[in-house]
Design a protein that fits this description.
2 copies of one chain form a homodimer. Chain A is mainly alpha-helical and about 150 residues long. Chain A has one domain: Orthogonal Bundle (Arc Repressor Mutant, subunit A). Chain A has 6 helices and 3 strands; from the N terminus they run ααβααββαα. In chain A, a hairpin with a 7-residue loop joins strand 2 and strand 3. In chain A, helix 2 packs across helix 5 and helix 3 packs across helix 4. The radius of gyration of chain A is 19 Å and the shape is globular. The mean pLDDT of chain A is about 90. Chain A binds a DNA duplex (30 and 30 nucleotides) through helix 2, helix 3 and helix 4.
DNA sequence: TGTTATTATTTCAACATTGAAATATACGAT
DNA sequence: ATCGTATATTTCAATGTTGAAATAATAACA
């Protein structure tokens, strides 16, 4: 149990906040995957379907930016969704470098069915916090997420 | 831009908090990796070294529990750390099912050098929040992390 | 003491993730 | 129109991640 780090109070507090933040998100994601929240899809596949559902057709670069994932990753995730018959690829006629990704009818049905269940699971998880606490958490996370600019 | 989900105010608030929480952690981790924070190690490798540094020798099952990762995953991450010469495996003499993982001298030097830099990067990131805000964030995350019991 | 159940680790297939190199297309300046 | 630069995607190798099956060792107990 030797604790090797003797930091300033500021450092210890930041470290404590960081550890609790990381663990909370890890634990939350683990619980959401254990349930039906993603309905047999991976979190990444679900994320792509959800983005297309809410924003309409997007090219892979836009998906990459929305989901904070690399371009190479998007290629694979979209490959797998195409194989599952949930999305389609087609070259952008205006700019043939881009590949537009659109929901198939099956994909739209799937995400339409899954999304409300996903939201319900999130509501359940967040019900340990009051509405005020949820608003505070969102506000603090917004500040923190933008810290790097 | 069609928004398909018309939820209750409670659902919209929980969803908003969830999205901001996820994005904040993703963005934060991305910025920490871009810097020297892990010193050429992956986040997983760094996590194992850090746990051994603070807690002393652990078996893989204990590392798995601490880091919220699967057993199969720990086998691989420890494999890679052994190959890098930063940790050693040895069978527990008392319970030969267990594999104890210990820091090598090189591993100890590495994490001793890296950890303070890691903390400094975290302090910098969290400096956009006041001490009170950091404490509030930690408290809310602690509640949320335990939500699933 | 055998038998059975439990626990710890490894192995494996599938998918995720990144970063860098390769390819293809578009754009800007001359 | 051409050349050079910038952008979008794909490919690839390395690592991470999980869950399930296989192995090995321990523990419980009739």
């Amino acid at each position: 149990m030797t604790v090797h780090y003797q930091g300033t109070p500021e450092a210890l507090q930041a470290l404590d906040a960081y550890v609790k933040l990381s663990r909370a998100v890890n634990a939350l994601e683990a619980r959401l995957s254990e349930r039906h929240a993603y309905g047999g899809l991976t979190a990444s596949q679900f994320g792509v379907l959800e983005a297309l559902y809410h924003l309409g057709p997007l090219c892979q670069g836009e998906l990459s930016a929305k989901l904070l994932k690399s371009g190479g990753n998007l290629t694979l995730v979209v490959d797998n969704l195409v194989r599952l018959g949930l999305v389609e690829r087609e070259r952008d006629t205006g700019d043939r470098r881009r590949v537009m990704v659109t929901l198939t009818e099956a994909g739209r049905e799937r995400i339409t069915e899954l999304f409300p269940l996903h939201v319900q699971d999130i509501v359940t998880e967040f019900s340990v916090l009051s509405p005020e606490e949820q608003a505070t958490l969102a506000s603090l996370c917004r500040k923190l997420g933008k810290a790097g600019q």
